[in-house]
Amino acid sequence: MKLSSTKSPNCRSGYMVKDIAPRKVGDMDDKVGKELTAVGEVVKALQALDPDSRARVVEYVFKLLGIKWLGPERAVLPRDETVHRQSGDYMSGPVRTEFPVTDIYQLKEQKKPRSANQMAALVAYYLKEIVPVNQRKESIGAEDIDLYFKQARFHLPKRAGVTLTNAKNAGYFDSAGVGQYRLNAVGYNLVAYSLPSQGAKERPGRETRRKKRLSEAHKNVKA
User: Fold this and answer.
1) What are the distances in angstroms from CA 23 to CA 1, 12, 18, 19, 20?
2) Rounded to whole angstroms, how far apart are CA atoms 115 and 122?
3) Which of 42, 120, 153, 201 has the fewest CB atoms in 10 Å of its CB?
4) 191 CA to centre of own chain
5) Which residue, among 102, 99, 139, has the nearest Cα to 120 in the 3D structure?
6) Cα-based distances in Å from 104 to 9, 21, 83, 168, 183
C-alpha cells in the first residue's frame, strides 16, 4: 500500500491512501506452499516424540521465537500484563496472563495452588478448559485426583474422595452424582482469576471449621 505525504483533514493519520497494489495470486500460492511445507516438517519432527516431549518442544520454540499463543480458546499475553475478559456464565475481571499451558504440571507451576482443595479445583479446570475438546470432562472423581496429582507432582492425598468432599465444602465444587464433582463459578474464578495467590490464606471449608470448633470445645472441657 502506497501512502502520499499530502495531509488530509478527513484522515486521522494525516495521510491519504493513494492506491492499493493488488497482491498477485502467484505470491499468495507461494506463501501458502511454504507454510504447508513448514507445517509438514514440524509435524514430522514431533511425531517421533512422546506427547509430553512434544509439548515441551513447542513451548520452548514459542519462547525462543517470542511467539504469543492466540488460540481460539484463550489468548496469552506477556507476563505481568492483565486483560479483562467475558467468560460466559462466569464473572469477568482481570485475568493473569501466562505462557501457553499444555499439561497439568505446567498449569500447577503457573497457578501454584497452596492446598489440596485448590489443586482439586485446578484439576477440574484443566479437564474442563484446557485439554483437547474430545478429552474434556464436566465433572471429576477420585480417579482424576489420583492421576493428575501424580502428573502435576503435587502431594498425593491419602483419600482422594475426602479431598473432593473438602473442596466441595470449601465452595469450589457442586455435587454431580455419586463420587462426581462439578467445578462451579467459585472454583472456576479461583483458578482463572485468583491463583497464584499473593500470600492470602485459603478460607477453611465447613468441615475444617467444624473440626476446629470441636477441638476448641474439647480443650475447654479439659480446662
Assistant:
1) 10, 26, 16, 13, 9
2) 11
3) 201
4) 8
5) 139
6) 55, 48, 23, 21, 16
Inter-residue contact 179 to 107 (CB < 8 Å)? no
pTM, to two decimals: 0.51
Per-residue pLDDT of the chain (223 residues), as tens digits, is: 444 445 545 544 444 444 445 555 566 677 777 878 887 888 888 888 877 777 777 777 777 777 765 443 443 433 433 444 444 444 444 444 455 678 999 999 999 999 999 999 999 999 999 999 999 999 999 999 999 999 999 999 999 999 999 999 999 999 999 999 999 999 999 999 999 987 545 555 555 566 667 667 666 666 5
Scan for cell 479483562, then name that residue. Answer: 84
